[in-house]
Specification:
alpha+beta, Alpha-Beta Plaits, 2 domains, 66% helix
């Protein structure tokens, strides 16, 4: 029934009641566990595997975008640095260095495109780890063929900047960052040993500086991860609180706009849409209204009791609803034993057909009503069709109620227009 109501312009707060909540396949007791984790100090925060998996799912799209941008950055930097190599290196060394930079740039650009297209899903860390190591190997090769310690040190620093950028900006596990840093230090030691020349003490000092920087960045990354996890938990808590609030508001809206006995929209809902009816009817012409009243309903309550009366209202509401044409027709419990049927885009002849079908369906129920002259539950229906300019809901009801009065005056159990 909620879909039928939305087609005519349901109020926003009532519409929320029919919208499904987002399902994140969240772990059990997530809210309480998140609250408990937020009580832990940041430096001691460790997310459980299932919540960590949820964090990975939430951050995967951003992580791939950052990784892709990082590959493009590394490829572009290598292309730009190759221009400086022309001024620093002799032809034999220049050829080797340019070849290495071109290979690295092509691999970076291809990897960036593949990441953006969704490749390496679940394995993004391996190309990210491999690329800095390739840069260090290329830097060591360039330093070896240049036979110039200062240039070799510069190449290593450039390669280390790539390593450091991974540690600080690319979201891979801390243990993978440690693995990358360890392998990078090993390659640097090999490069320093094989390049020849240079003062051993200076090389030792440089290696100590490189290793200390990597260690400091790893510690900073560990702290940064803790704050990222805490921020994720705060956002997750706020999201769950917002969903709970929306769910409560939706339930309150449902209570406010749905008749609990018949489970259809109530008079309050109709009063809400009446304010917009003059604008709504521009797109709904012709608009027909059927006012349906159960004949001698008070007598039914007097003879059979209010429980049977409530059951009668439920049965009649379901019967009318089952005889509607689709999502556009809207049934409202207008009050007491009166129902209102809105038929957008329906002319007088088709509205009378709908009313006759509803009337026959109610009569065919053959439910007893001792107070009725017919002995069974029947109804009187007044039909009004508005054809031209927009009109207020109150005017529609007034005309439909007048038609209903004519049906009752003519003997009940009939349709009048």
């Amino acid at each position: 029934m909620a879909r039928q109501v939305m087609s005519i312009g349901i109020p926003r707060e009532f519409r929320a009641a029919s919208e499904p909540a987002v399902n994140d396949n969240a772990p059990a007791n997530l809210k309480q566990r998140v609250d408990d984790l937020l009580q832990v100090r940041v430096r001691d925060l460790e997310m459980p595997p299932d919540i960590a998996a949820l964090y990975e799912v939430r951050s995967s799209k951003i992580r791939r975008a950052v990784m892709s941008a990082w590959f493009f950055w590394v490829g572009t930097i290598n292309i730009l640095l190759s221009g400086f190599d022309i001024f620093d290196l002799a032809p034999p060394a220049l050829t080797v260095t340019l070849a290495a930079r071109i290979i690295i740039s092509l691999v970076c650009l291809i990897s960036g495109v593949m990441l953006r297209q969704g490749y390496f899903i679940g394995r993004e860390k391996w190309p990210v780890i491999a690329m800095p190591l390739l840069c260090i190997a290329a830097a060591g090769l360039a330093g070896h063929v240049s036979h110039q310690p200062e240039i070799a040190a510069g190449y290593l620093i450039n390669a280390l900047l790539v390593v450091y950028s991974v540690i600080m900006f690319i979201h891979i596990d801390l243990k993978d960052s440690k693995l990358l840093a360890s392998l990078a230090m090993v390659l640097i030691v090999v490069s320093m040993i094989t390049e020849g020349g240079g003062d051993a003490a200076i090389k030792s000092q440089l290696f100590t500086l490189y290793a200390a920087t990597a260690y400091a960045l790893l510690q900073a990354r560990r702290i940064h991860n803790r704050f990222q996890h805490r921020l994720f938990l705060i956002n997750l808590r706020d999201e769950m609180n917002a969903k709970e609030t929306a769910s409560r508001n939706a339930e309150l809206s449902s209570i406010a706009y749905i008749d609990r006995l018949t489970d259809i929209p109530n008079r309050r809902y109709f009063d809400e849409i009446c304010h917009a009816m003059s604008e709504t009817t521009k797109n709904l012409m012709p608009l027909s209204v059927c006012m349906i009243d159960i004949d001698k309903f008070k007598s039914l309550n007097d003879h059979l009791g209010h429980l049977r009366g409530d059951h009668c209202l439920q049965v009649v509401a379901n019967t009318i609803r089952n005889n509607l044409r689709g999502k556009t027709d809207i049934l409202i419990r207008y009050g007491g034993d009166e129902f209102l049927l809105l038929l957008p885009g329906t002319d007088r002849e088709r509205a009378l057909d709908v009313a006759e079908r509803v009337l026959c369906a109610i009569t065919d129920l053959q439910h007893s009503n001792p107070g009725s002259p017919f002995g069974i539950i029947t109804a009187s229906i007044g039909v009004y069709t508005h054809l031209t300019h927009p009109v207020s809901g109150e005017v529609l009801i007034e005309h439909a109620d007048t038609a209903l009065y004519r049906a009752k005056s003519a003997g009940r159990n009939r349709v009048s227009a």
